[in-house]
Design brief:
single chain, 193 residues, two-stranded antiparallel ribbon
Length: 193
């Protein structure tokens, strides 16, 4: 196999891995997108039931207002997050992170994209003067760990991290190949003089 053939083979392998990551990205976005729409109300409800004394003071009309505010704004917030998650460079940035490879949250650059839904939810909680469960860190959107429309995000995340591992290994081989190629060229140069 010639050097050119080896490079072409490595590039084809890289293209296949990147295509796999794109497929996993689309699958994950569909799952996250569906969950995002439910997160604010789920989180406000969780805060509501966590503080019984506070919850008992909240009139029904205020609960209706909260639900109406969430329903009226979540589509825009969720679309913003989906648009951010659609940036494939964030998914490819997984090569910069090491971890267990169990959750998309381990790709910090990628997971920062979901922050707007947590910020929106925290804003609702603060506007209606809810006590916060985690006042130091505020509201955090975490990757769902249950089936959503028959899809299981942790399984998608594991496949994603496996593909990222393959991409890291392939790029390491490509870099080594490049160094070897340069060494051969330098030896030719040296020997020709």
């Amino acid at each position: 196999m010639t050097q050119g053939d080896e490079i072409k083979l490595l590039e084809e392998q890289e293209s296949a891995i990147l295509a796999n990551i794109r497929c996993l990205m689309n699958e994950a976005i569909a799952v996250i997108g569906e969950d995002l729409a439910k997160f604010p109300e789920r989180e406000v409800r969780r805060h509501f039931t966590a503080f019984v004394e506070f919850a008992e003071t909240v009139p029904e009309q205020k609960i209706k207002e909260i639900k109406k505010e969430i329903a009226g704004n979540i589509a825009t917030v969720a679309q913003d997050v989906i648009d951010r998650l659609s940036d494939e460079t964030l998914w490819f940035a997984g090569v910069e992170f090491d971890g267990e490879g169990k959750s998309l949250m381990e790709n910090v650059k990628l997971w920062e994209s979901v922050r707007p839904v947590a910020k929106f939810t925290e804003g609702v909680l603060r506007r209606y003067k809810f006590p916060l469960l985690n006042p130091g860190t505020g509201v955090e959107y975490k990757a769902p760990t249950w089936f959503i429309s028959g899809k299981f995000l942790p399984a998608i995340a594991e496949k994603y991290w496996k593909a990222i591992g393959e991409l890291k290994e392939l790029r390491k081989r490509m870099a080594e190949h490049s160094v070897e190629s340069k060494k051969k060229e330098l030896l030719k140069k040296w020997d020709s003089i």
